[in-house]
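Justification of computing resources. Each target in the renewal requires a structure prediction run like the one illustrated here; the chain below, 135 residues long, is used simply to show the kind of job we budget for.
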Amino acid sequence: MTSKVKVTAKAIPSAVASQRKSSYHVYDMKTSIAILIAGVCLAACTKRASQPPVLDQERFAAVYIALMDSSQHIQSSAVDSAAHPVALRILEREGVTLDEFRRTIAYYNADTERWKEFFQFVITKLEERRNQKAG
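Resulting structure tokens:
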């Protein structure tokens, strides 16, 4: 017994339409996922952008040199020498928060080339200071 299926002109458009609906559903799902991922990325970028920047090299060098000048007062055995009272006074005098100082240290620690450039800058500043005292 074979059954014959009668295909009418009305049946074809309805089959195509149901296939289109399911493909739209998949397309909508892919679009939704893409929008969600883009939103998460945007939120992550926005959060980074809203973080306060690190100290510029000139300002960081001034703080660093002041800390080195007073290093005899700051115990090197301290776990966090930046939190030493003398260091905190220097940071306050320079208008730098402990958080800014720590973020700047972390920024430089992320790339040794930054430290190399920074120390070259500090050496130049110290030589200028020595020449001013001698002159």
